[in-house]
Amino acid sequence: xxxxxxLPSSALRLTGPDRLDFVQGQMTAHLKxxxxxxxxxxxxxxxxGQIEQFARVYRRPDDVYLHLDDLSGTGEQAALLxxxxxxxxxxxxxxxxxVSGVLSSLHLWGxxxxxxxxxxxxxxxxxxxELGGGAxxxxxxxxxxxxxxxxxxxxxxxxxxxxxxxxxxxxPAELEAARIAAGVGDVVRDGWQGSLxxxxxxxxxxxxxxxxxxxxxxxxRLEARGNTRHALRLLSGRNLPARSExxxxxxxxxxxxxxxxxxxxxxxxxxxxxxxxxxxxxGLAVVVSPAPA
Length: 293
Known about the structure:
Layout: E1 3-6, E2 9-15, H1 19-24, E3 38-45, E4 51-59, E5 64-69, H2 76-88, E6 95-98, E7 103-109, E8 126-131, E9 134-142, E10 147-154, H3 158-165, H4 172-182, H5 187-190, H6 216-225, E11 230-237, E12 245-248, E13 251-259, E14 263-269, E15 278-280, E16 283-288
Antiparallel strand pairs: 1-7, 2-5, 2-6, 3-4, 4-5, 7-10, 8-9, 9-10, 11-14, 11-16, 12-13, 12-15, 13-14, 15-16
């Protein structure tokens, strides 16, 4: 049976005739190749090719909507990205609107998530329709190892929306445990800012067939070289701490992302010998390799 989990979020809306060209030149994904409506996961990099922020970017007929997971619940992620984008606006006819205060998001997951009223399970990955007295923007997103639906809606319509869903609410920890077990990396929840996208399972967020953006030169070098020193892995152990150093002997070989206690995602060196004994905090861990996602 499907259930829903609230997503602490912030959001930006880009308007103006140059909005598509502008945001295309700021991020790793190829938004122009997406349908309308459509969505791409995207990273915003520094000049070293390291992730500064991650967003799911929705292309719509009249605007571009950027959804950011924001665990603080304060709108911090949208504010940071808005400041970055505004820094690059020179002659572009584009306006950046922070809409974090009026929008909310939740994730619908479970085996029958796509049975949502109004959703066409055979239709495109992004759809908009009326639900519970208000408009919703819905996109297919894999957050738990199985495809689910992200729903974005006006906060003023939340009561009617939740009544229309008529589903049990699952706590964030339950969705998080399912995500970790499935090996699905998450830039914000795992703390992967400062990593290369390819090291932390964000390959799908990078297009090598689009125009210039900050960090593109590093992405091109990685494409030519064909690999990175680190990769996303899943560790198994006991009492595994989150966001901690991973050691092989006296050598630091990676760091953990989020942890459920017995499982943890990890950014781990690829040159470790098979069966390597790893230490995370005070405990031992083994690699479930590759990560199953």
